[in-house]
Amino acid sequence: MFQLLHLSFMQNALIASILISILCPSIGVFLVLKRYSMVGDTLAHASFAGVAIGLVFGFSPIIISFVFTTFCAILIEVLKNYYKQYSDLILPIVLTFSVGIAITLTSSGRAQGNIESFLFGSILTVSKSDLYTILILSIICVVLLYLFYEKLVYITFDEDGAKISQINVKLINYILSVLTGAAISVSIRIIGILVVSSMIAVPVATAMQLNKSFKSTLVFSVIFGFIDVIVGLISSYYLNCAPGGTIALTSVFVLILTLLFKAVRRNG
């Protein structure tokens, strides 16, 4: 295993994976507890459109993905005001819009790059510039999470109470949407667009089985996310396959093991 650290592409992939394993579950905790986990899946498809735009017009796919995903995240919040009675319609609308753009651009044959590396993830394509972009976005997200942590927790558990307490709920929801878009954008190089939402939801679902406090659940979500990403990444190298699949499978296996451990402990 340690010989992998001598490979430059593996060093880039590992650093990016560590950042992803911290960022995605940290944001995922708030999304899952707010019943917004499917938002992650919708924004993952939005990132596909962003990548397609970047590859067709020659811009950085990660940066354009972040911009477009953030736009779609804000669009979801705006549409909530128009579909208050039918909020479940919002996600299909944004998803259809994003996938339509992605398919139109990628099928045009003008994409200047390998779209499959973004769909399934790759440990070979994380360049230094990608790593710097991921690092900068991750630092910004962590700082924002720290600054708005208490308000995010308040809104997660009692949005009406937060409004009464004069908290700008709409602004905080917009910030959470931007953070979600950033988390997805920085993850697609390693995890891939098709399964990136699993890193937001599954480690949190695993941590919730421990029945701990919110802060402990947040910490364990990051720990499980780290295990999922690192084990999946190393497995993908030895199995010679895309890391997105092995990371997703690892996250599910860890969840199953946690459920089995919980059942044995309860019955024992």
Automatic annotation (TrEMBL):
Record-level GO cellular component terms: ATP-binding cassette (ABC) transporter complex
GO biological process: response to zinc ion; transmembrane transport
Record-linked PANTHER family: ABC-TRANSPORTER METAL-BINDING PROTEIN, METAL TRANSPORT SYSTEM MEMBRANE PROTEIN TM_0125-RELATED
Membrane topology term: Multi-pass membrane protein
Transmembrane segments: 12-33, 45-77, 89-109, 130-149, 174-205, 217-239, 245-264
Pfam families, sorted: ABC-3
UniProt keyword terms in alphabetical order: Membrane, Transmembrane, Transmembrane helix, Transport
Superkingdom in the source lineage: Bacteria
Protein name (database record): Zinc transport system permease protein
Predominant cellular place of this UniProt entry's protein: membrane
Similarity remark: Belongs to the ABC-3 integral membrane protein family.
Stored InterPro entries: ABC_BtuC-like, ABC_TroCD
Keyword Transmembrane carried by entry: yes
Compartment(s): Cell membrane; Membrane
Species per Swiss-Prot/TrEMBL record: Clostridium acidisoli DSM 12555
